[in-house]
Amino acid sequence: MKTIWKQSLLAAMSLVVPLSESLAGTADFTVQYQNYNAAGPSDDIIEAGIQVRNNTSAAIPLSSIVVRYWLTKNGASTVAPACWWWNAPSCSAISLTTGSASATGADQYVEIRFTSAAGSLAAGATTAPIDLGVTFGGATVNETDDYSYGNQTVPTDWSRITVHDAGSAPTGGLRGGTLPTGSTNPPPTDPPPPSNLAEFFDDFTYSGTGDAAFTNLWTVRTYAGGPGVSGATWSASNVSMVAEGSDRLMRLRASTNGTVAGTSHSEVLTQAQKFRFGTYATRMRFRDTPLSGTRVFADKYVETFFALTPYSSPSYSEQDYEYLPNGGWGQGNTPTMFLTSFDKNKTASPSARLGYSHDGWHTLVLHVRPTGNVYHIDGVERANHTSQFAPLINQFLDFQMWFIELGPSGGARTYFEDVDWVYFAKDAYLDTNTVNSKVSSLRSASIPRKDTVP
After folding, report:
1. Do 208 and 170 reside in the same domain of the chain?
2. Is the pTM of this model over 0.70?
3. Which residues contact 405 (CB under 8 A, 6 or more apart)?
4. 208 CB neighbour count, 10 Å cutoff
5. Domain boundary among 185, 210, 236
6. Carries keyword Signal (predicted)?
7. Are 236 and 180 contained in the same domain?
8. Residue 319: C-alpha distances to residues 110, 176, 312, 343, 407 (Å)
């Protein structure tokens, strides 16, 4: 018999039922699964087609549930999930995370979460297929020992992929499917921020890059070298402070006329190399169209915010938000955001690709913990990379614009990005709303910059 989801009962009981328990039925949802990579059970990738059917008689917000795929990593050091399609290539209403387990056929699980933009799933309805990919940093794994594995190539009801209440413990809040036998370990809970939180904040209210307060904190690059088009210059004149209403912004530009001699990049990085674990955040405006000249899709360029050590360091690390408005790096002309954790001492660097436009203002929040790096855009988790890519030493904060390759020579064109503010909290992991509240409080107190990071 189908279980009817009783909204009034849920509302009445929500204050007394533990988060790990569910008032709803364990057969409210059925997962349908097909293996898109059934021909390769022993390779470096999982690709699963996952659909969710609502078995109740009421519409249910998808944001109230999560889906968990259970697997073994077979000794791989990286487990990197990605959504490759759901209603559109962007998967914009989905985020993914991973957790550890100790169960038959599972030492990891991948969790699929839905944002409010996913809407509700009508009674009796089934979602469009989610194309879930999991990669292992190039390592070969044996999928056949995964609890959730099946070799079916058509959608089939599959109890080994489970549905739970959003926010529940890994084995709690079961709404559909059958759990693996054993136990799971929830992700670690972050401690509350200390009362004497060490912070770095800059509102970029300077008169210009020659302002003494600016040069006390930041360096504008002028020396030659990579990344980008070999022989291009890194020009101090490509960095400026601009007014927008009552606000001031830092603007970075990159220009070209299609020749190396006519190409210039820009970079601004902190004077201090003192940022390691904590919350990195910035509000940036990415732009798909040029500041001047005609957009040339063959100009492949990068707008970026990141943290890094000197590349010459034996402990080199880097965590990147890299937006390619005209595509590139194998993406054709499709605008793509790359979220990447680099370590030159590792054979592979995990990277999530968001293949859609990010033109406009966005708040980027990166959590760098000893356990790994978690990338958020506008409050939604977009990538989660494991502990082997956590930095070993302190890093710089950095903004850049540079060309990967150039289009045909001809008229000059200048591309640009704007930065509203940047914020760092040492050894504290703040969500996007909390970061925005911190910035608003600093602005309300007329504090244009703050640096208490030792």
Report:
1. no
2. no
3. 229, 298, 299, 300, 328
4. 9
5. 185
6. yes
7. no
8. 22, 37, 16, 9, 28
Q: Tell me, what CATH number does 437's domain have?
A: 2.60.120.200
pLDDT in tens, 251-310: 999 999 999 999 999 999 999 999 999 999 999 999 999 999 999 999 999 999 999 999
**215: enclosing H helix or E strand:** helix 212-217
Taking Cα atoms as reference points, which of 398, 305, 402, 391 lies closest to residue 342?
A: 391
**Structure token digits, residue 235:** 């020009």
Question: Does residue 163 sit in the same domain as residue 280?
Answer: no
Q: What is the mean pLDDT of residues 114-137?
A: 92
What tokens appear for 404 in the block?
Answer: 């990967």
d(CA 57, CA 63): 18
- For position 41, which CATH number holds? 2.60.40.710
Amino acid letter, 337: M
Q: Residue 447 sits in which domain range? A: 199-451
Using one digit for the tens of pLDDT, what is the confidence trace for 152-201?
999 999 999 999 988 777 788 899 999 998 755 555 567 778 889 999 99
For residue 241, being part of any structural domain is answered with yes
* Total domains present in the chain: 2
Assess contact for 451 and 200: CB atoms under 8 A.
yes
> What counts of helices (H) and strands (E) characterise the chain?
3, 30
